[in-house]
């Protein structure tokens, strides 16, 4: 045993790493520009005290890391632990640089428990061979929510004596009233009945209306953003679905009637956000897709989230669904250099990061300073946390944490989560109308590097054509007459190949 340890230490040294027993652990954290330097976060010092290990914290900003990552990896020059800087793809591109953490779980009781309680978190971290080169994180159950919401001005509805619309026809009627009846009461027809962002499929996309037709989107990330969806285990592409055709025709109708601004698809993002907050005294916008009521600034009190309306009144409510994304887990959070594998302190540090107390502190800030520990898994966010945020400074790693906030934890006064839950709860019924496995592509399903390149090349051509066409139809009409030609064009660009690749990956990786 002695002999073997010594050999492993020698190997550690010969690999160029500093990761031998007893040596300091270097931890590189890729940080957002508005975050306090990790070295100056009090919890970082407590973590060293708790583990009895010397830790050399290093901060790097996103841009700098973007430039230095590949050269560093090519040179084999990696810190012992990298937080939020190495994903599965990097580990695949530079093999033998990072430890397969799945072989270390006996030294990582917190991580092992995380994966037992949250199998999706483990799936998300694993590659097709079950290896784990970068750990998943969890912000906790409060973030098991889409982050994609449809919100409407309830003050205007009340003013006009109207109810929240439940079908596309009802929505159109409401938007007409917003346009013509001066619901903000300033005597000027300055209302924007509904505002949408440019056509693509990502955060707050106008194509969220696909859910009105029964197509489950998952627009926070993954292949749903390029067209893939799943119905009863069968992979399909919504870019060539009848649902999309109907959504586009509906948007054209709204735009042609002046219920959506004519420049909505070409306006820059700052102008769009300015319409939401207005001048802080008089609301101008009726309906949007967004993150939470905080999107409306000082006008937030006037708005509520609403379930997406059904495409038509003949549909059973159970056929209408809502975006399946969640914000609880994120992959690519923590990787360990093979050169550091034999330093026991490395594994002590990794496991401590995934403990309840250090996860909460990585997420929000040091105990006593920004968060109060009330005992029994309950914590209260202190005013200093929000005050710092209001000054543009984040006191912790926020969603970049490499940790796990278990379901047993309750965090009081966490504004972002409270705001998210406030709007997300409206969708619990629509989100229960699909099967999370049979009717969506789970986040953990991945393609091989070669498939990924092929799909990405096909998608570039497909999207260049499709986004342009969809925008054109919303603005000028023509979707019905030109639809068949469009579908044919996408066939020619290989859309069926993309579907086939995802179907194979789904069938191989999903346990049904
Ligand atoms: Mg007005």
Keyphrases for this structure?
512 residues, alpha/beta, four-stranded mixed β-sheet, 14 strands, globular, 39% helix, single chain, binds magnesium ion, five-stranded mixed β-sheet
Q: What small molecules does this complex bind?
A: magnesium ion
| DSSP summary: helix tally | 18
Average pLDDT figure:
93
Strand order of the largest sheet: 2-1-3-11-4
Proportion of beta-strand residues: 5-15%
Class by SSE composition? alpha/beta
Would you count the extended β strands for me? 14
- Helical residue percent? 25-40%
Largest sheet: 5 strands, mixed
What does this entry look like structurally?
The chain is of the alpha/beta class. Helix content is 39%, strand content 13%. It has 18 helices and 14 strands. The strands form four sheets. A five-stranded mixed beta sheet has the order 2-1-3-11-4. It has a four-stranded mixed beta sheet with strand order 6-9-5-10. Strands 12-13-14 form a three-stranded mixed beta sheet. Helix 5 (109-117) crosses helix 6 (119-125). The longest helix has 28 residues, at 449-476. 45% of the residues are buried. The model is unreliable at 1-19 (pLDDT under 50). The structure holds magnesium ion.
Task: Put the structure in a nutshell.
This protein is of the alpha/beta class and 512 residues long. The chain is built from 18 helices and 14 strands.
């Amino acid at each position: 045993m002695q002999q073997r340890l010594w050999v492993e230490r020698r190997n550690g040294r010969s690999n160029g790493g500093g990761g031998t027993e007893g040596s300091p652990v270097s931890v590189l954290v890729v940080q957002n520009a508005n975050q306090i330097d990790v070295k100056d976060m009090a919890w970082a010092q407590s973590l060293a005290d708790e583990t009895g290990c010397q830790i050399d914290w290093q901060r790097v900003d996103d841009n700098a890391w973007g430039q230095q990552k590949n050269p560093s990896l090519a040179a084999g020059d990696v810190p012992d632990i990298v937080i939020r800087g190495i994903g599965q793809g990097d580990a695949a591109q530079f093999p033998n640089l990072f430890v397969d953490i799945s072989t270390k779980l006996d030294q990582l009781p917190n991580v092992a428990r995380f994966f037992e309680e949250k199998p999706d978190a483990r799936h998300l971290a694993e590659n097709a061979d079950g290896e784990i080169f970068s750990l998943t994180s969890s912000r906790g159950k409060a973030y098991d929510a889409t982050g994609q919401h449809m919100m409407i001005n309830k003050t205007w509805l009340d003013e006009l004596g109207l109810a929240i619309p439940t079908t596309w026809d009802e929505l159109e009627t409401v938007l007409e009233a917003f346009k013509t009846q001066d619901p903000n009461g300033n005597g000027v027809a300055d209302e924007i009945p509904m505002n949408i962002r440019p056509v693509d499929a990502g955060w707050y996309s106008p194509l969220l209306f696909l859910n009105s037709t029964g197509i489950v989107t998952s627009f926070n990330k993954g292949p749903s953003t390029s067209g893939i969806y799943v119905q009863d285990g069968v992979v399909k592409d919504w870019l060539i679905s009848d649902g999309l055709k109907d959504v586009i025709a509906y948007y054209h109708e709204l735009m042609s009637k002046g219920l959506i601004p004519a420049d909505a698809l070409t306006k820059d993002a700052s102008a769009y956000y300015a319409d939401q907050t207005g001048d802080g005294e008089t609301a101008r916008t009726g309906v949007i897709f967004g993150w939470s009521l905080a999107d409306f600034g000082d006008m937030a009190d006037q708005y509520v989230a609403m379930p997406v309306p059904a495409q038509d009144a003949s549909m059973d409510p159970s056929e209408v669904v809502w975006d399946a994304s969640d914000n609880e887990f994120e992959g690519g959070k923590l990787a360990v250099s093979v050169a550091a594998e034999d330093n026991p302190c490395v594994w002590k540090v990794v496991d401590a990061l995934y403990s309840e107390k250090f996860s909460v502190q990585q997420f929000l800030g040091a105990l006593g300073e920004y968060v109060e520990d009330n005992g029994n898994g309950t914590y209260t966010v202190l005013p200093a946390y929000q005050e710092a945020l209001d000054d543009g400074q984040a006191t912790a790693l926020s969603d970049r944490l490499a940790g796990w906030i278990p379901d047993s934890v309750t965090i009081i006064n966490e504004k972002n989560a409270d705001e998210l839950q406030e709007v997300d709860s409206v969708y619990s019924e629509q989100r229960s109308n699909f099967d999370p496995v049979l009717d969506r592509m789970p986040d953990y399903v991945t393609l091989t590097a070669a498939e990924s390149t092929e799909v990405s090349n096909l998608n570039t051509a497909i999207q260049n054509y499709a986004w342009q066409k969809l925008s054109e139809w919303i603005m000028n009409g023509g979707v019905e007459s030109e639809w068949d030609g469009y579908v044919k064009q996408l066939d020619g660009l290989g859309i069926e190949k993309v579907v086939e690749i995802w179907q194979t990956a789904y069938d191989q990786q999903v346990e049904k």
